[in-house]
Amino acid sequence: MAYSHTNSKGQTYYLHGKVVTLRGGRKQQIYYFAREEKADALDALPEGYEVVENKRTGLPMLRKEKK
């Protein structure tokens, strides 16, 4: 079951992650939220990250935990 977050507006988003290739050929892991659960959905938050919400739109985002 994918990790889900319900925002302040009552909408549910599912966390996804994938590895993308940048222009220089370097590979980087990215995370994003989507309203529908897709094949690349993640079961849990990555370690060291927390969910924050955009105040204007309510869209959830990941950021590194503040110490």
How is the main sheet built? 3 strands, antiparallel
Mean pLDDT: 95
The geometry reads as globular
* Range of helix content: under 10%
Major beta sheet, strand line-up? 1-2-3
Measured by DSSP, the beta-strand proportion falls in: over 45%
Q: What is the succession of H and E elements?
A: EEEEE
Number of strands: 5
Residue runs with pLDDT of under 50 for 5 or more positions? none
- Given helix and strand content, the structural type is mainly beta
End-to-end gap: 29 Å
Specify Rg, calculated over alpha carbons. 13 Å
- Number of discrete helical segments: 0
**Number of domains as seen in the coordinates:** 1
Structure characterization notes:
With 67 residues, the protein is mainly β. The radius of gyration is 13 Å and the shape is globular. The mean pLDDT is 95. The protein has strands spanning 4-6, 12-21, 27-34, 49-53, 60-64. The protein has one domain (4-64). β4 and β5 form a beta hairpin. The strands form 2 sheets. It has a 3-stranded antiparallel sheet, with no helix packed on it. It has a two-stranded antiparallel sheet with strand order 4-5.
